[in-house]
Each structure stands twice: as structure tokens, then as C-alpha cells.
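Researcher: We're teaching a course module on how sequence relates to structure. For the next exercise, students receive a sequence and then see the predicted structure as C-alpha cells, so they can try to spot secondary structure elements on their own. Here is the exercise chain.
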Amino acid sequence: MNAIKAINLTKTYKNGVRALNGLNLTVKTGSIFALLGPNGAGKSTAVKILTTLSAADSGEGNVAGFDVAREPGKVRRAIGCVAQNSGVDAESTARENLMLQGHFHGMGGRELKTRVSELLAQFSLTDSANRLAKTYSGGMQRKLDIATALIHRPAVLFLDEPTVGLDPHARSELWDEIARLSKAGLSILLTTHYLEEADKLADYVTIVDRGRAVAEGTPEELKAELRGDWVQLELADAEVGKRARLLLQGLEGLRDVQISGALLYARADQGATALPRMLLALQSGEIAVVSVRVSRPTLDDVYLRHTGHTMTQAGETKREAQVE
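Model: And here is the predicted structure for the students to work with:
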């Protein structure tokens, strides 16, 4: 049985924003599944629907064997959820937060006290268990968030942008904890716009853009689709991008030439060999180049290939649209 199955989910908000546009995804039991995409891609909306916090306009969702629309109570009992914003009561201690969450799930007595002690130890919070949560660092608060979501031993854990705002050390610690939870058999769906996070943690990735899946597979499978090297050129003038692309399209060993603003991207069998020829071709057209970069394929390159823009640029476009 799959831990999560979503079929053709659609969602349009009252302001006309179409957050999901036929999203499909399948999460295998015991795996870490990453929804990867820029801010505004529809990741959080998908989580809200699958955790019964919002209703889809159409499509189907099944979590832990239960239909999210017809059996929301059963879904809620089977899942743990950590939202982007912390749900911890800052004026209570870690122990009090965990006890309260346990009561919400009908737990009590020795069973609850034992479970609270287990989770405090598991997340290295025992020594600070009786401190107010508002005195915790960002990383400690995030650990407490996850601990409260696990109090009732859920079958599926949702993590919506779990490491946003954390420093690199705290982020690395949380990655280690998420990996340990998966090895213990927990099914995890996490949303993220951090490429490294999806690459490091996920068994399987679905890349989301504008509410739909544009690519899916293991991180290695997705990157393996892109043979050779990626070459990135920053042009001095964004207005000449189309002409630059035409100058490069005929070069031997070069393919997938794309323009995004002042940046020109191309795949090459041998980046170091192709770069001089690319610069000469552009020079012949009197097109100036500000900087160059040659690299092995990343998940951002996969995103670029399928959408025509990077995740950073997609996020900036979304924010600009919201401001307007």
C-alpha cells in the first residue's frame, strides 16, 4: 500500500490564483518523498489538502489508506503534520507542549508520560525539557515541532518547509533526524525549495511548477537525464538574449540552449571544450559576456530544463506578481 496517493488535484482560490493544476503524486510506504519547487508552486496547498485542512476543487487524495475527503477523521489520526510556522506554545515548556498534544490525541497516564520522555530523549531535549519554548533556538523549536507531531506515533509525517530560517548547523542536524525517522519506517512527505535538501534526503522527488508536476524520479535519475555539463553565461545586455541563442544553436556538441533574462544556459558534452567556442561565436555577434560558469547537472538544472527558468527566478516572479 502507498502511504500517499494524489490524483489530479486542482485548487483555485477565491482571488483567482490557481494553486494546483492537476497534481499527481505517489509516496511509497517508508520513504522520504520531496515536493520540490519555488515559493508559490503549490506545495503548501497540496499539503493542506492531503492533511484535510483544505478541500480540493477536484481530484482524489488518499493518505494511510483513507480518503481525505470522505474519511478526514481517520486521516488526522494517522498523520503528523509540521507546518511552515511553528505550532509550539512559546509560553509553555517542551514537556508541557508534548503533554498537551498527547491529550489532544486522547492519550494520558503512564503511556503519555513514557512517550513524552522518549521523544525528549530522541530529539536531545531532555536537559531543556522544563524551559519555556520561547527560550529555545530556532533549531530546538523545530525539533519540538516535529516531536509534537510524532506524539501519537503516526504512520505518515508531513513536513512543510521544515528547515526554513534555520542556520546551516541546525539544518544539518534536522536532516539527520529526518533520515533517522525514515529508517525507522516512517513515511515522510516534505516540501522544500532547497535543492540540497531534496538531493540529500529524498528517495523520490516530484518537481512542481505552477501547481503541476513537471518531473519526477529519484534525484540521481533526474540529474542523469542531463548528459554532460551545464554552461551558464551571464550576458551584459539582457535584450540580446534571443540573438545570442541563435548564434549558439548550431555549435557542435551543444544542446538545450535556453535564455532566462540575462542568463544563457546550454548543455555540452564537454563544458571546458565548448566554452571557448561559445565565447567566440558570441564575440562574432558583438555580444558581451559578464561571467561564465561550468558545472555538473543539479536539480535546479532539471527544473530549468522542464520549465525554462530556474527556481530562484520562478520564486521572484511569483513575489512580483503578488506585489502587483
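Model: If you want an answer key for the exercise: The mean pLDDT is 91. The CA atoms of residues 1 and 173 lie 31 Å apart.
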